[in-house]
Amino acid sequence: MDTMNTPYKMEPINSDMLTIPRKYQHQIHKRQVDAIVANFDERIANEPKVSFRNGRYNVFDGQHTIKARVKRNENKPLDILCKVYYGMTLEDEAHLFAKQ
Question: What pLDDT shows up at residue 3?
Answer without folding.
Answer: 45
